Amino acid sequence: MTVPSPSASFATPAERAAEGRAARRRRPRSSHGRFEPGPGRFDPVEVVERQSATRVPELVPIRYGRMLESPFRFYRGAAAVMAADLGAAPDTGLHVQLCGDAHLLNFRLLASPERHLVFDINDFDETLAGPFEWDVKRLATSFAIAGRANGFRTKEQDGVVTTCVAAYRARMREFADMRNLDVWYAQDDADHVRELMAASMTGRARRRTAAATAKARTRTHLQAFAKLTAATPEGRVIAPDPPLITPLRDLVDGSSPHQQEEQEEELRTVLEGYVRTLSSERRHLLRRYRMVDIARKVVGVGSVGTRCWIVLLLGRDDDDPLLLQAKEAQESVLAAHTGGVRYDNEGRRVVAGQRLIQTTSDILLGWTHAVGLDGNERDFYVRQLRDWKGIARPETMDPGLLRLFARLCGASLARAHARSGDPVAIAAYLGGGDRFDRALTAFAQAYADRNERDFEALGAAARSGRIRTAAL
Length: 472
Fold this sequence. Notes:
Elements lengths: L12 H14 L17 H9 L7 H8 L3 H7 L1 H9 L7 E4 L8 E5 L5 E5 L6 E4 H18 L4 H23 L3 H6 L2 E2 H9 L4 H16 L2 H8 E4 L2 E4 L6 E3 H4 L5 H19 L4 H7 L3 E8 L10 E7 L6 E8 L17 H12 L8 E6 L5 E8 L14 H22 L2 H8 L4 H30 L8
């Protein structure tokens, strides 16, 4: 990094605000309320199939089965579909580091290295630089779809979405008036979240929030260790639950000893390469552990079929575990639609994006690269498997509680964008009125309609035999 000289030219806040207002001429705020893909729109099933072509073949039917459980599940697995739609439309030109898949379930309570609970974005598989509004639109639409799934009236759905976008706009305007370091250090810890929401919370909502916080503190690596492993006469191993969790020993069962050795060596290469991306003190910490077992794990909805390994390591004894997840990182779904920075390793892209926009990252977050038995090169990122994660359950929320959660997510997304983008320019674009809020509420409803039709198209593909599904 080159430090700018004292004579380097920097835009003033007034010039940055003028840039934001100029963006309104390129992309008026009211124009965001329209979603008109036109008759030549791509086949959404084909987009999903292209992704599946690079994944583990026997796991692809599970991906389709999960996507067909509901329109919301389809939406979670169809980030590539929405990226293609957003990429085809004009944009503001105001870029940030995007999450890339900012739906509501990718915001949750997490543990900071200091062992505090914070509320933040959790998934960065698709992160890449791009227009700020792409993330806001994906988040807003997820709340419209969740409201529909809960049977909310249209007015109630709109209220949730508007609350989300208004919170994003208000928080961004706050960041526009803050010093750079204050923006960087801003975070939403559990205590701040309670204060932020206290004025709007009912007694029932307060109790549920307190319960969720308490539950998140129990979701530690020790809980995962107890759930995912078993004691055997040979020692502690990862417990099989095929096809969702399949130990390496079972995957290579029946293979020649040479093939088994090659598979084990490939995974050791993955871990050794990963360790080299950590800082020296964290490499020192990992040297206190020994690798005991490895298994393939099926995760999420959109990620199903990508290669994902869980690694069991033990330290002092069998009661000193560490569980790591090594997840394949493929090209971001945004890459074809934006001119963002390209990385030589997609795992490094995920890690760099996460460190840029998440206020507190896993101390063991890193990346690596490996060549598989099939000769294909693959990138991975590695993190702890579970550490104090609190996951929202929108299906249990009434309109009031979902609005509170939408407010929290919108404000959190603004914080992420302010770290990497220009909050002054974005705030000036958004303005002090609700024009952008109302436009995105209309967009969310229009795209929720489109999502339902795409969901039906995938169902038709399953019924015709074009795709094969499995219910797991």
